[in-house]
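User: Sorry, what's this?
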Amino acid sequence: MDTQTQADPQTAELLKQSFEHLGRQDFVQCERTLARILDANPEQPDALELLGTLHRMQGAQAEAESLYRRALAVRPDHPQTHNFLGGLYREMERLDEAIAELQEAVRLKGNFADAWFELGLAQMAKGDLPAAEKSLRRALHIVPNFLFARQALGVLLNDMGQPREAETLLRQTLALGPRDPRHVAALEHNTGVALKLQGRYEEALRFFDAAQNRMPDVPMAEYNRGHTLQLMGRREEAEASFRRALAVNPQDEKAQNALDELLATRH
């Protein structure tokens, strides 16, 4: 998080403590420390921004939006606040507003990799895949080993019908050695998707199995495993995968439609 603050020494120390509390997810102490700042200066922009992020992490989106807006009223040219507000709007599925805020963030700070990444995600959600690709590649030009941008670009390339390039990117990212098991599992799953799209089904299954062994609840992994098995003609195993996907998420329309189709053609 970028403070870029001109705060007095006491405020700066309280902001530092607030960051530390937030990093430990000690939300109570974080809010109490920020309250000390805002009691003395109700429009201190760094404290408003950080309090907005605290509320965002707690799921209080309306409060977060209000606080980010107050921070921008004091400091309208602060790229980080525009980035945070754009990310919040993306989470709220207010995509046009998200894109506008994130474009403002990168206009103010052209080498802002986090904002280019967020912009790419918003453009993906909007369905503007070419624009999303440009934004994600810009983020990676700035920070070549940006894990989340690499992962998102891999997903995007699969969606754009470029699975061979996606496979290369995702394998390179796995070779970087990410440590978080959830991140590794997501990369393995998306590599499996790239292999499935290339018709390399046995290899795809190995990656899906690796992802599920690492993290049993990887989104879409059970569906993609089932679809791969279906393409291989292994119908009973495919049916079992689709049923497991629905057991985890009964609202999984892709798994339900695939299972219905499979059952309808059983005889």
Remarks:
- The radius of gyration is 22 Å.
